[in-house]
Amino acid sequence: MHLAYPAVLSALLFCTGLYGVLARRNAILVLMSVELMLNAVNLNLVAFDVWLSRTAEETLHSGQALTLFTIAIAAAEIGIGLAIVLAVHRNRGTADIDRLRDTAEGHENAPSADAGGTAPADEKAEATA
C-alpha cells in the first residue's frame, strides 16, 4: 500500500477533530474530538514506521512504540478529563463550555466583603455609636 492513503486519511481525521474542538460547545464532544486528533497522529506514526522499515535494514518499530505510549496517555487523559467534566456538570448543571466560561468570569468580577464591600462601613458605624 502506498504511503499517501494513510497520510490523507490521517489528515482528514485530524481536520475533523480540529473542527470538533473549535466548533463544539459541549465539553464531552471536545474531548472526543481531541481523541480523534490523537488517533490521526497514531495512524501517521504507524504508517511512517512501516514505510521507513521497508527502506531501512534495521527495524526498530519506534513508530509503533510511540503509538502505544500515545494510546496509554490518551486513555489517562480521557479518564481524568471525563471525571473533571462530570464534577463540573454536577456543580454547575451544564457541560456547555461558553456557559462555564461566562459563570467563571462573573464570579471573578463580583465584589466581596473583604475587598471593600459593606464590612468596613459597619465597623465605622459601630465605632461612632
Task: Summarize the structure in words.
The protein has 129 residues and is mostly helical. The chain is built from 5 helices and no strands. Helix 1 runs antiparallel to helix 2 and helix 2 runs antiparallel to helix 3. It is elongated and about 60 Å long. The N and C termini lie far apart (90 Å).
Tell me the layout of helices and strands:
Layout lengths: L3 H20 L3 H29 L6 H31 L4 H13 L9 H10 L1
What value does the average pLDDT take?
A: 82
How many strand segments?
Answer: 0
For the sheet with most strands, the description reads: none
Overall 3D geometry?
elongated
Report the total helices. Answer: 5
> How far do the termini sit from each other?
90 Å
What is the succession of H and E elements?
HHHHH
Low-pLDDT sequence parts: none
